[in-house]
Inverse folding.
């Protein structure tokens, strides 16, 4: 068994344990394998091990991999998306986790119209005070959701956040709790549309806390692929 296959098995076991601890079903939780900086052949190895969702941060890097691998798995964009990269993004990704403005959502909708394609999106919510994080504030999310659900070719299915970068469990959990509260607020106030259900939150260092707080998607990179080595990146 390869090292990636071993890592994948361990991650599944840890997620199953976290799910049991919180009274949840393991099958409710999707694993997004974050493959940024890793070459296409490593992604192939991960898919052989059982990975079904690939998460990428950068459009150019993802495009190079996608050209080689095609629809080997479902592709999720988890990094910040600029409007001038939307045209390329919708050629690659099935799900975009990082929609943080109406302007961006409108551009995605417009480009999808041109390709006659629907795209699943999540709104990125900033749940900490860290200046390096993207996302709308929690009190802006409801209004943005109201507008986004009216746009053609977009399916709003959930929210995404990055927990505070700290070892303080209470502070990290508060970020995840905030996202869940925003989801509940949106579902309580937008009654004419299907409720959103996905919470994309939790990474290699905090995904168990995220699952216990309601995550339905966890974004795991290092714990599956190992430490990143940018200088050795190849496609």
């Amino acid at each position: 068994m390869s090292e990636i296959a071993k890592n994948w098995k361990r991650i599944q076991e840890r997620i199953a344990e976290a799910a049991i601890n919180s009274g949840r079903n393991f099958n409710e939780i999707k694993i997004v394998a974050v493959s940024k900086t890793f070459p296409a052949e490593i992604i192939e190895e991960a898919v052989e091990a059982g990975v079904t969702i690939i998460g990428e941060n950068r459009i150019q890097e993802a495009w190079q991999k996608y050209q080689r691998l095609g629809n080997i798995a479902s592709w999720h964009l988890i990094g910040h998306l600029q409007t001038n990269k939307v045209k390329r993004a919708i050629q690659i990704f099935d799900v975009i986790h990082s929609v943080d403005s109406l302007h961006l959502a409108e551009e995605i909708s417009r480009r999808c119209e041109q390709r006659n394609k629907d795209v699943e999106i999540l709104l990125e919510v900033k749940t900490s005070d860290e200046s390096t994080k993207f996302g709308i504030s929690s009190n802006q999310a409801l209004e943005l959701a109201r507008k986004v659900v009216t746009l053609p070719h977009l399916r709003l299915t959930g929210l995404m956040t990055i927990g505070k970068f700290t070892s303080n469990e209470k502070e990290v959990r508060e970020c995840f709790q905030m996202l869940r509260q925003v989801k509940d607020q949106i579902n309580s106030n937008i009654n004419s549309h299907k409720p959103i259900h996905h919470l994309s939150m939790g990474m290699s260092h905090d995904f168990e806390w995220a699952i216990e707080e309601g995550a339905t998607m966890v974004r795991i990179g290092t714990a599956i692929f190992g430490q990143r080595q940018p200088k050795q990146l190849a496609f």
